[in-house]
Known about the structure:
With 521 residues, the protein is α/β, with parallel strands linked by helices. It folds into three domains: 3-46 and 131-241 and 357-415, FAD/NAD(P)-binding domain (3-Layer(bba) Sandwich), CATH 3.50.50; 248-351, Flavocytochrome C3, Chain A, domain 1 (Alpha-Beta Complex); 437-509, Up-down Bundle (Methane Monooxygenase Hydroxylase, Chain G, domain 1). It has 14 helices and 16 strands. The model has no long low-confidence stretch (mean pLDDT 95). It binds flavin-adenine dinucleotide (FAD).
Amino acid sequence: xxxxxxxxxxxxxxxxxxxxxxxxxxxxxxxxxxxxxxxxxxxxxxxxxxxxxxxxxxxxxxxxxxxxxxxxxxxxxxxxxxxxxxxxxxxxxxxxxxxxxxxxxxxxxxxxxxxxxxxxxxxxxxxxxxxxxxxxxxxxxxxxxxxxxxxxxxxxxxxxxxxxxxxxxxxxxxxxxxxxxxxxxxxxxxxxxxxxxxxxxxxxxxxxxxxxxxxxxxxxxxxxxxxxxxxxxxxxxxxxxxxxxxxxxxxxxxxxxxxxxxxxxxxxxxxxxxxxxxxxxxxxxxxxxxxxxxxxxxxxxxxxxxxxxxxxxxxxxxxxxxxxxxxxxxxxxxxxxxxxxxxxxxxxxxxxxxxxxxxxxxxxxxxxxxxxxxxxxxxxxxxxxxxxxxxxxxxxxxxxxxxxxxxxxxxxxxxxxxxxxxxxxxxxxxxxxxxxxxxxxxxxxxxxxxxxxxxxxxxxxxxxxxxxxxxxxxxxxxxxxxxxxxxxxxxxxxxxxxxxxxxxxxxxxxxxxxxxxxxxx
Length: 521
Ligand SMILES: Cc1cc2nc3c(=O)[nH]c(=O)nc-3n(C[C@H](O)[C@H](O)[C@H](O)COP(=O)(O)OP(=O)(O)OC[C@H]3O[C@@H](n4cnc5c(N)ncnc54)[C@H](O)[C@@H]3O)c2cc1C
């Protein structure tokens, strides 16, 4: 395989909200290189529907109320200082996004059309129709394209970050002086492996949804950043807190990505009904459809277990058609495209893996346990979400931490030097995989294992079963990895097995139910 060295000041892995916002903030100080494994806009960010939470209308809302809502949703496992910081700094960061050109819906020239979602006691969600993430991604990519210091390499897959380990030193998790010099990155089109050497490395690789059989996340969400960081002996945290979105569209086939029906629709008045037509949320929580999403997801899971059905319904038939289409054109069009008219038919929905609250452990600046590595966005565990993320807080978290990481790294990066003896990738002794089935089948097994045994409701028996299956998958895949020429499929599988292992390990450690981690013995 061909190899080549590339030098940059700031290496950013990922082109979602976190990576792009960070890039814009540091670009006036040095050379920025963003690598992204697919097209630049293929990110979790692009699919965000509901919006971004920020205290905007001080007549009804307050910073304290948003803080309280975040902590209540997180079952108090949140880091209160971080919650306070994100909620307080959030409106300023959102304003910067607006100044860059992001358009959020308004009711008149001055006032935003603020929505309310599950777990929020006030209307505070800024949104662009029901395609808020698309609008944010568009805005940021346009701004990045105009900046002469920022280069994006699309279809470039990051394999591993580079540390002292690659200089032949023994690196264990006990070491507190691990530092990073960049990353090995595969150009998927040419098969060349770049040794990208950087003063600062930012992991902004997003979510892990593909580790489960049903997910709202796109195919890129394979937890690569968390896995490569863990392999480099960095600290990760709270991996057991996996959020399932209660209402993904049920289409009766196994999808790689399920279409999300935003909970803003429940805020708008839609009602959940079982297949007998009975509204059931009252049995589970007095907030009914507006309860936090873990409660709603478990309620649906329970209804499905009792009835043996594959889905429940979201009933929108009583809602105002014109207003609905105005607010949720994307969802309306999707439903109509598969023959469901939301004003005639109820929408079939089921829970799907949606968001990871845990991840790479970071401080208030996004600094990880490995020097020169910042982790921002969904791959990071900041302490904001605690045991459960409040709806629409993740885009906000990504903005606030991208900003803080930028400020911190700008103050330090010029002091960082890069050793001269960093080797290029060594592909000696490896060959192209002869049977892709070994990889594709193992991926399915992993996803089924995680969905069946480490899903919404967990038990010791299920977790142990997952552990044993994962051990086998790990052994088989490591043996294959050792002799296979690097390719995206085997690396993603390796990363997803690592993520499955971390979630299961952390879930086994936490004996009592809290937030998203729900155990039944
Ligand atoms: C359907 C859906 C709806 C959502 N709705 C909302 C909402 O309304 N409000 C809200 O706050 N949050 C929402 N979320 C969550 C939110 O969108 C994400 O948490 C957030 O966008 C993550 O941003 P990010 O920058 O961390 O990662 P992403 O936007 O996922 O970007 C990750 C980037 O990393 C790249 N990458 C990954 N691995 C590698 C690798 N090995 N090499 C190179 N590049 C790599 C990817 O290609 C991608 O560019 C939603 C999520 C989904 C899936």
